[in-house]
């Protein structure tokens, strides 16, 4: 005489879930990823390698937008954002000379920029750097902190020229990759 087996609804549900989970696991394990060219893989990997993104900020709408752009780039790999405000010290003064209005402006700009980064829940550091020219200060900060990427907001200068002195310096001498973001006309 054969024993009788009673099926319970709970047991059937558990068995179905188990079979579905095993099926999904097998599909995931044996699926072949879409083939990509070496160039595409390299481009994707280059942004994944950004662990520290430096953003020069001045408190302008263009620099605040650059902070937002840097945060969005940093989101996937949880990269750290380094906010840098460069105080340009005139050649007639020593680099360490007190400049209260510029120091106050730097503090305010960095506070607002940090708030933008904190909205994205990313690690953030802020520093004030002194230099004779902003471009030199940004480059020094990028080298000192081993930045992987610089994201800078720009606005067109005089006579419609997009590149100012700072952007030109970064374009030619930056020790890492640089992304420039030009603010649209209606947002200036």
Explained architecture:
It is a single chain. It contains 6 helices and 5 strands, in the order ααβαβαβαβαβ. Helix 4 (100-119) links the parallel strand 2 and strand 3. The relative contact order is 0.15. The chain is elongated and about 105 Å long. The chain is 46% helix and 18% strand. It has one domain (50-187): HUPs (Rossmann fold), CATH 3.40.50.620. The longest helix has 22 residues, at 9-30. The chain has helices spanning 9-30, 38-48, 61-74, 100-119, 134-144, 165-173, and strands spanning 52-56, 80-88, 124-131, 149-154, 177-182. The chain is an alpha/beta fold. The model has no long low-confidence stretch (mean pLDDT 87). It has a 5-stranded parallel β-sheet with strand order 3-2-1-4-5, sandwiched between helices.
Task: Summarize the SSE layout with pairings.
Blueprint: H1 9-30, H2 38-48, E1 52-56, H3 61-74, E2 80-88, H4 100-119, E3 124-131, H5 134-144, E4 149-154, H6 165-173, E5 177-182
Parallel strand pairs: 1-2, 1-4, 2-3, 4-5
Helix pairs in contact: 3-4, 5-6
Helix and strand sequence = HHEHEHEHEHE
CATH homolog superfamily: HUPs
Which fold name fills CATH's third level, the topology?
Rossmann fold
The DSSP helix count reads: 6
The second-level CATH architecture is 3-Layer(aba) Sandwich
**Rounded mean pLDDT score:** 87
Tally of separate domains: 1
